[in-house]
Amino acid sequence: MTDWWKQWLTNLGWSQSLLLETLDIVLVLALTYIILVIISERRTLWMVRGFIILMLASALSNKLGLPLLNFVLEKLVIGCAVAMAVALQSEFRRFLEQLGRGEFRQLFQPDRLAIPKSDSVIDEIVEAVKELSKNRIGALLILETTSPIDERDFSVPGVKLNAEVSKELIQTIFQPKTLLHDGATLIRGSRIVSSGIILPLSGRTASRQLGTRHRAAMGITERVENCICVVVSEETGSISLAERGTLNRPLTIRKLKESLEALVSPSVDREAVAPGLLSFVRQISGKTLALVSRLLRLPSTASRDKK
Q1: What is the pLDDT of residues 166-203, one digit of tens each?
Q2: Residue 270, exposed/middle/buried by CB under 10 A (0-12, 13-18, 19+)?
Q3: How many other C-beta atoms can be found within 10 angstroms of the C-beta atom of residue 185?
């Protein structure tokens, strides 16, 4: 009876250890999934994967008893975490806001683009930019690429329009005698959301040939990654495209259209980066069961080989 009691206590301790390790793995997988939902962009996904690899390498070096390597990897993980927090500040701010409001269900739901941009919308934008460039009328357009932009990233939100995108309306907005021509115009999907938006200026040292519109385009794309800006110079009529704080100029109409078609991704890409939670759990559970069954078969196979 005493031996049975000791064996039961031993098995209980082993079960608790296995349960805690399983819970630890599940929590890490859940946190990884939340990060993928927050990031939601394929270009940034590689940076997240590199960060996860560093974390796993740090944990492995600790398990293997390599103190110097573990020390170096821990410092790298901390530095990368700070760099990611700075580079993805808008995404992490949304995460903290949802966490503070108790919106735990939304943390596991990837945002989808409400209205993907069609070729006709891009054609309307390109035609409007073509006419504005021809007439040397300054313009600044903000195009959302994935999730909506938080208006708190703007210095002044501007005037709400909520109108259908058309080349005539875009050209009218930026006419020099209109009240909204000095600011930027925000385009979401196939709608013009607002105009007269005042954007934060970039702190980078720019060429003297670049005016306030160019610096504003660089500034908003530095702060917010899920948008691009099209700029038309008032002095020269040249066309520029700002992405992630970088200004590509000058662009031809054909090059502008190709760039817009390449950068404006449909909502399907976001879903592919972070699949639904149920499918994510099914994939993980399926692979785990396959691995466990394979490990359980190893002793029997080895015993057969010995026989």
Answers
A1: 999 999 999 998 888 889 999 988 889 999 999 988 87
A2: buried
A3: 26
* Confidence tier at 246 by pLDDT (50, 70, 90): confident
Contact 236, 137 (CB under 8 A): no
- On the 0-12 / 13-18 / 19+ scale of CB atoms within 10 A, 173 is buried
Q: Supply the pTM of this predicted model.
A: 0.54
Q: How far apart are CA 181 and CA 214, in angstroms?
A: 15
Beta carbons of 40 and 110 less than 8 angstroms apart = yes
Q: Dump the DSSP string for 67-92.
A: HHHHHHHHHHHHHHHHHHHHHTHHHH
Q: How many Cβ atoms are within 10 Å of 149's Cβ, its own excluded? A: 21
Least confident of 156-160, 219-223, 268-272, 289-293: 268-272
